[in-house]
Amino acid sequence: MKIILLGPPGAGKGTIAKALMEQDGSVQISTGDILRAAVAAGTELGKQAEAVMKAGDLVTDELIMGIMEERLQQEDCKKGYLLDGFPRTIPQAEALKVLLEKLGEKLDCALELDIPREVIIDRLTTRRTCTNCGEIYNVKSKPPKVDGLCDVCGSKIVQRDDETETAIENRLQVYNEQTAPLVDYYRKQGLLVSVPTSDLETVMSAIRERL
Ligand code: AMP
Q1: Residue 36 a catalytic site member
Q2: In the chain, which ranges are E strands?
Q3: What is the per-residue pLDDT across 124-157, written as a single tens digit (0 to 9) for each?
Q4: pTM of the prediction?
Q5: Which residues pair with 137 in a beta bridge?
Q6: Whether pLDDT at 198 is above 90
Q7: Is 53 part of a structural domain of the chain?
Q8: Domain that holds residue 125
Q9: Which of 60, 74, 81, 83 has its CA 20 to 30 A from that of 28?
Q10: How many angstroms does the Cα of residue 172 sit away from the middle of ligand 1?
């Protein structure tokens, strides 16, 4: 499968991507995860991205396209990929189109998780992330077995810097202004599949119907 996952932060793109990965060996590519790893490792890329990410703004299209050009040509992408958090702007979508033409590849669909704002805010403010392996928890619906520690690797779990109320408000505004126009962009190309939920079964059947 070659799928773009669209939807505001907290819509459940990462969870859906992980579930889809298990179906056919496609790989999840999360630009947010790539950037967070670069920040943690203190690389040049991480230094450029850190402050922008903390504020909930977008890093430049050039920087993201540099990452994606390299990533999409790696061996593990041959079986398919689930793009989680990319593209985020019309210029990124246009650049992706050119890149895919160059690689001789075609997208199966752009899957929009159309989740209400109140649900998103509640999910993001209660979300916690493992500082080591990235496993996601939720203080209400999926707490770790031991308070503050990851079930998978035992490391500390924390609230992400960009999941404070102020940063979330900004990320949602950035989404509405810069990313939401992609829904129409992909609708016009006949690629859009929109579901009003992140319930796995519903999402899976919408994808099956489409493919
Ligand atoms: P995410 O985990 O997808 O919510 O991404 C976290 C942060 O990384 C975003 O708020 C942006 O600062 C940055 N980021 C991730 N993907 C992109 C992208 N495609 N374009 C620009 N910035 C991005």
Answers
A1: no
A2: 2-6, 27-30, 81-84, 109-113, 127-130, 136-138, 157-158, 192-195
A3: 999 999 999 989 999 999 999 999 999 999 999 9
A4: 0.90
A5: 128
A6: no
A7: no
A8: 2-26+79-210
A9: 60
A10: 12
